Amino acid sequence: MKTIEDLGDVAGLRVLVRSDLNVPIKDETIGDDGRIRASVPTLVKLAKAGAKVIVTAHLGRPKGQPNPEFTLAPVAKRLGELLQPEGVQVRFASDVTGDSAQSAVQDLDEGEVLLLENVRYDAREESKDEDQRDQLADELAALADVFVSDGFGVVHRKQASVYDVARKLPHAAGGLVLAEVDVLRKLTESPERPYVVVLGGAKVSDKLAVIDNLLAKADKLLIGGGMVFTFLKAQGHEVGKSLLEDDQVDTVKGYLETARSKGVEIVLPTDIVVAPEFKADAPATVVAADAIPADQLGLDIGPESGKAFAAEIAGAKTVFWNGPMGVFEMAAFAGGTKAVAQALTEVDGLSVVGGGDSAAAVRQLGFADDAFGHISTGGGASLEYLEGKELPGLAVLEED
What integer pLDDT is reported at residue 355 of this predicted model? Predict the structure, then answer.
């Protein structure tokens, strides 16, 4: 995979960068700017080298049409604030490849950054029709001389700005993509042991292939979040009104048996925080994991389980965590997630927070990014890599 250095001297060149700037925005206010901050080093590197940097990115799901709710204008403003101390100016184009984009590219000076409007405003970006994607890729490529892929959160997508444009221009991987791939290789090819994987989130079905693949690599799997109730059901326990995927119970039974045969320990909570309804002010109580009342639903792993999970993490040399342990957005049900996050900050080895809700959780709970070995910017991409899938956006970077 080529790096920016392999592109040679980029001074004066128009460099198209695919970044991942898909951040939560409400009322034009950015909730978590982690992905924007992660994009900064590559943009600064190119700008300092004298490139004319053109950034394409998406926000949300505008369904192929301009929608003010999904404009990247607030992102451009925040990016400008982050790049200002580096002496780098950020401009914004009000369309993807149209008159505004073309005019802005012509006016762009060396060392400046231009952010194009949400690429998903153009339906061709996500089209299943290769000819449609190819047309948009041609238009993007016409704006630039070389392409740098730095949006790890989208490298599992076969989209015009990720995959097709890379085939039309000299290309390289940005620093963020290289860092993400390096960490994932450590997790899958040569993890230092003991190797503990912590999985949470709502559904087992979202993590089936990951569990299947990691059963051959990890020493222990710690299971929390909404998905744990399908595991408890597979063990014959009642789960009350908790989230349950009945159609996955037999699959989970198979995983439990496979884990036993491979000598991999699957650790489940022994206590659960329950409430009668899904509300922040619902009365919370702690019950044994095998004694959840019929009129209650589980919303977090319990305090004893939090301690047990932390102890398992403390003894590990490599930890990968994806998915919160409970409904961390509600204070009463954030204890399990906080216990796991705190334990990861104390790992004597590699600790990886697998993006998505996990990354949002650690920031919301007050943890600094640098307290962890690595916080991924690509939850879905990370999971697909760990499933052993080929990621189109990475595969194309390896082409000549």
Answer: 73
